[in-house]
Design brief:
heterotrimer; A mainly alpha; B mainly alpha; C alpha/beta; B: mainly alpha; two-stranded antiparallel sheet; 12 helices; globular; C: alpha/beta; Rossmann fold; 6-stranded mixed beta sheet; 9 helices; 37% helix
Chain lengths: 319, 290, 249
């Protein structure tokens, strides 16, 4: 039974067209700087949700994958002057391998142990990178952007468009998983892993698959950040804030559907940009924490869940 | 070789301090199964409270720790009530959300500390800070000895509480079989709430020790997630004597690596050990429960 | 050890199975053959190792020693989902429904994942299969109801329905009748009987002795991880050790 994919792809094409148009007609650089960050979080949140939302394995290792993406790009650029596309592709491959390794190591652990293990992994990887002097060590490393290619006028505009492409890729993949047997298997194992396994669902394989895909996408999202900042240092690239932010965005948006993390990322991303500029970056994190706690306590299914409940109540009211 | 011996001695002292800092988690996570990722954040919060009393009113840090203990107890009672009503009652995927909840709380605490005290390091002053004992060729900072003594006392006291008092035994009973406790007419939720209160109250002294041993800064809780969970998991959930032994192992391992390889590898030790234990022997080295 | 010219290979052969939890031995050197098409009752006091045995057969537990052979194949090291795909299904003592799904969706998981690879049947056919199983178990009217809204007996039936949807050759029912009223017990018993008549081998764990007696061709009694009696129902029930195990001297 084929779901109708045409509206989705039309929407995706329109989205990319709008982004491309923006880069041609808007001169002010600020929207692109802010927009890049928001799009980056959309990719991260959607990627996170594949393992965290569909399978229910709350992964705190987003920071690890993001940081590895950044440093893979740094390594390739420094060692071989690799172009952006290669940096991103390589990051995705590294992310897939890392996801597989992390999965093998941690997916047998239940609940909180899995989550704690992913935090542990982040710190271990961060410490290892900090001790790798070729990549700049603790002090970080600076990079020079290569000249921008036509039709873009500025490098940031190009990065903005590239990140928009990654959004489309990530959402398309999440949407496919959600509607396929993979998604149904993940849903079953999220509800009750033992029952799923005894009903024929290959739980370990599905979890590993989710981990690999999620990891690849998160690393890919991190790769352009090296060029975006023209600078990378371990404590920023691996900052646990990424893990909490992405977690919050996905949970607040709602994890049952791919639109949830998209909505959550856009909402929180925009809020963050506003707060960071108008008040302070600390208040930014405070608001994030408070919203996370509020939603987890009061609206665990996120905004998507609230909308669904509202619609259901209205339908029942009218019936 | 001398350097190594120094490291081991310091490591043992540090280890006992880690035990005091982790023992609350042994109760809240080890016995009560609460995914208390915010435990280190509570700890840091306590140490800032100690700083405040020491800085503003010249109260000795250990005394300050004692003073805030009852406050922390009630805070723990309230926190558990909120957690229970929201998560444990509702079962199923609540475990996942419970972790997210505590993570959110930890971040909120971090930011509130930054807003109130700023990001700079803070330390306390006391008569025993800044001096050192000479034993043979070794120089042992006096504050570590104080921390060692107080920590040991705290750990032993809590272990005795859990094994000798009525409430303590009730707590251990609830951890093993909630239903049986209910059938005997006691309210397991009340007992767990009390236990969580005790686990949080202990952080008063533990927080004082934290800021005595080294300066604190708002994001210190992140490093201590590794240390406390490493200790608790290595110990085998809920084992008090295991907590002490595991903590000493961690303390010694950290100091040895620090001595041999330098400070840049130190942050990863506890996390690496935690990963190792989780992967190989998740029931801990002295595991009693699985 | 089979005599020359023996009739058929056992469907399930358990050989010297031992399972320990720390210092506690839950199953001690258990060996038994289950014949194809047999109706096999498994009884024993609480804690005697019945559910542990089921967990070892379905793959949820790894064993310290012993083998499990299913249709001649050694499945001792296989993960649970592979055993399910080869035709071993089980229900859980305390029902474990997929809470975010409807009753029909619960069955679809089984149909999507447990069907053998060569059963490439279409989604439409799978849906029909689900409905027919639901009709057989009396849950057809609840097909689109969320699993969270079922009553106890409906949950038990869905457990069995989901197990049936895996197209098993061996179905293990773990105390499906516990706590049900006598008419509900009869419903479940009839269901199991009709499954047995469809050539599905059934192992039934129950405490309701009348049901076990009516249902079983053979009964095995466990106590403290060991087999203390196995044979025809009347024999086993009359066995003194069995009576002692239950009455507890």
């Amino acid at each position: 039974m084929k779901r109708n994919s045409v509206p989705f792809w039309i929407g995706a094409a329109l989205f990319l067209f709008a982004i491309a148009l923006m880069t041609q007609i808007i001169d002010n650089q600020y929207p692109f700087f802010a927009g890049y960050v928001i799009l980056q979080f959309v990719v991260l949140a959607v990627a996170w949700s594949i393992l965290g939302g569909y399978a229910g394995y709350v992964n705190f290792g987003t920071s690890a994958f993001f940081g590895v993406g950044v440093y893979t790009a740094v390594l390739l650029f420094k060692a071989a002057g690799a172009p952006l596309a290669v940096q991103i592709a390589a990051a995705a491959i590294v992310g897939a391998f890392l996801g597989f390794a992390v999965g093998l190591l941690t997916l047998r652990m239940q609940g909180i142990f899995f989550s704690i293990a992913t935090i542990a992994l982040t710190i271990v990887i961060e410490t290892s990178v900090t001790n790798w002097r070729y990549l700049g060590g603790a002090a970080g490393i600076q990079m020079q952007r290569p000249p921008v290619m036509a039709p873009f006028h500025s490098y940031v505009q190009m990065l903005f468009f590239v990140q928009a492409l990654l959004v489309v890729v990530a959402v398309a993949i999440a949407r496919y998983i959600q509607g396929s047997w993979i998604g149904r298997g993940l849903q079953a194992l999220k509800d009750d892993e033992l029952a799923a396994e005894c009903t024929g669902v290959p739980t370990l394989r599905l979890k590993l698959l989710a981990c690999v895909i999620s990891g690849a996408l998160m690393c890919a999202a991190g790769a352009p950040a090296a060029m975006y900042l023209q600078y990378a240092d371990p404590s920023s690239a691996f900052n646990l804030n990424y893990s909490v932010t992405v977690l919050a965005m996905s949970l607040i948006g709602g994890t049952a559907h791919w639109a949830g993390p998209v909505i959550g990322a856009i909402l929180l991303g925009v809020t963050q940009q506003l707060l960071a500029v108008t008040i302070s970056s600390e208040v930014n994190v405070l608001v994030l924490g408070i919203m996370l706690v509020l939603f987890v306590v009061a609206a665990p299914e996120g905004l998507i869940g609230l909308v669904r409940r509202f619609r259901r109540n209205r339908a029942e009211g009218e019936a | 070789m001398d350097l190594l011996l120094d490291a081991v001695v310091i490591g043992v002292l540090l280890g006992c301090f880690y035990a005091a800092v982790s023992i609350g988690l042994s109760v809240s996570f080890g016995l009560l199964d609460v995914p208390h990722v915010a435990h280190p954040a509570f700890l840091v919060m306590a140490s800032y409270a100690v700083f405040f009393l020491n800085d503003r009113y010249d109260v000795d840090p250990l005394v300050a720790g004692l003073l805030i203990t009852p406050l922390l107890f009630f805070f723990g009672l309230a926190a558990y009530r909120l957690y229970y009503e929201t998560f444990e009652r509702r079962g199923t995927d609540a475990a996942v959300r419970g972790i997210a909840f505590f993570f959110g709380v930890a971040f909120i605490i971090e930011v509130l500390i930054i807003l109130q005290f700023g990001v700079d390091q803070r330390s306390v002053t006391a008569s025993y800070i800044g001096k050192a004992w000479r034993i043979g060729d070794m120089r042992i900072p006096l504050r570590l000895v104080v921390a060692f003594a107080v920590a040991s006392a705290l750990t032993i006291l809590l272990a005795l509480y859990l094994s000798r008092t009525f409430m303590g035994r009730a707590i251990r009973a609830v951890a093993q079989d909630q239903e049986a406790v209910r059938l005997m007419g006691a309210n397991p939720v009340r007992i767990k709430q009390w236990a969580f209160g005790v686990a949080t109250a202990v952080l008063g002294i533990a927080g004082a020790l934290l800021i005595i041993v080294a300066p604190v800064e708002p994001t210190l809780d992140r490093a201590y997630i590794g240390r406390t969970f490493c200790v608790v998991v290595m110990a085998g959930l809920g084992s008090m004597s295991g907590t002490l032994i595991a903590a000493i192992i961690l303390g010694v391992a950290e100091t040895i690596v620090l001595t041999l390889f330098g400070a840049s590898w130190a942050p990863a030790i506890s996390f690496a050990m935690l990963l190792g234990v989780l992967a190989i022997r998740p029931q801990g080295l002295l595991g009693r429960r699985s | 050890m089979m005599a020359a010219g023996a009739t058929e290979i056992p469907l399930l052969r358990i050989g010297a199975l031992t399972k320990r939890f720390g210092g506690f031995t839950a199953l001690d050197n258990v060996s038994v053959d289950i014949r194809p098409g047999e109706r096999f009752g498994l009884i024993g006091p609480n804690g005697s190792g019945k559910t542990t045995l089921i967990n070892c057969i379905s793959g949820a537990f790894r064993t310290e020693a012993g083998t499990v052979l299913f249709r001649g194949e050694d499945i001792t090291r296989l993960p649970p989902f592979m055993r399910t795909r080869r035709g071993i299904a089980r229900s859980f003592q305390i029902p474990r429904p997929f809470r975010s799904m409807t009753v029909a969706e619960n069955l679809m998981v089984a149909l999507d994942f447990a069907a053998a690879a060569d059963d490439r049947i279409s989604a439409g056919q799978r849906r029909d299969s689900a409905m027919s199983i639901l009709t057989q178990t009396g849950l057809a009217s609840k097909a689109n109801v969320s699993a969270t809204r079922l009553s106890q007996v409906e949950l038990r039936k869905m457990e069995l329905a989901r197990a049936m949807a895996t197209h098993p050759k061996l179905l293990i029912s773990d105390e499906a009748m516990a706590g049900l009223s006598s008419s509900e017990v009869d419903e479940v018993l009839d269901l199991l009987m009709s499954l047995a008549s469809q050539d599905i081998t059934i192992i039934m764990i129950e405490h309701i002795m009348q049901a076990v007696m009516r249902f079983s061709d053979r009964i095995m009694c466990l106590d403290a991880g060991k087999i203390i009696a196995i044979g025809a129902p009347a024999e086993v029930m009359a066995n003194q050790r069995v009576q002692e195990a239950y009455l507890g001297t």
